[in-house]
Amino acid sequence: MGRTPVLILIALLMMACASRPRIVVGSKNFTEQVVLGEIVAQQIERRLGVEVDRKLDLGGTLLAHEALRGGSIDLYPEYTGTALTAILKQPIVTDAKVAFRTVSQSYRTWGIEWLLPLGFNDSFAMVVRSGTARDQHLKNLSDAAKRVQAWSLGVGYEFTQRPDGLQGLVKTYGLRVAGDPVAMDLGLLYPALKSQKIEMAAANATDGMLAHPEFTVLEDDLHYFPPYECAIAVRADTLQRYPQLRQALTELSGRISDASMRRMNEQVDVEHKSAAEVARDFLNQTR
User: Model-level pTM?
Assistant: First the structure.
């Protein structure tokens, strides 16, 4: 075969690859999001037989949202409270149905649909060492606010800027914080608590480490934090392009409980399983 026919064949193969149907699944940059991204990606591959490109671990909320709006990803898991406050700049609401309805309606102006929630609520969780809670008789954040000594606080990078984050928390409870909170990757909060580099952490309710008795979540007794039901936000044009996609994704709605999400996070963070393995096991168990 001469050079020209070979070049033509290569060009045809490249065109075939370029035209092959693909769905791009994104996620934010922490364990739970990567696990959920894998669950969604594998569900699509199983149910539609379509190739999936993974853009997991993208970054924070705003990066993931702009990637979805701009079309560089087709879908990603998001939380109602986060969308309501960080993206839409709406006041905090405590009614989960109102929060979901508000974000669903508002996102349609961007050509994005919210599918029904996956089943768990990943609220912020203010966590202390269990020994601290026991010694200081702490059950809730109102108890913590009564302490005269200021708290050394560790937070994720978004928490100090979020409208549902530090400023409102301090105002609602009158919580005293020692200086500026220590910002770090979410996965470092628990080691920092354990080593007593911080006394309290702004963590997540479905963190795998919360299955361990050495940590205690202080109740948000004044209901400051909004609901954070997790759901899949997907581009409307992607749903039109793949008619079976909606049904495949809806099969995940209501299937992930708080406990099962916490357990999957624990398998990755503590047992060091891969997100892909954990996602595959979950889908095999729920078939």
Answer: 0.82
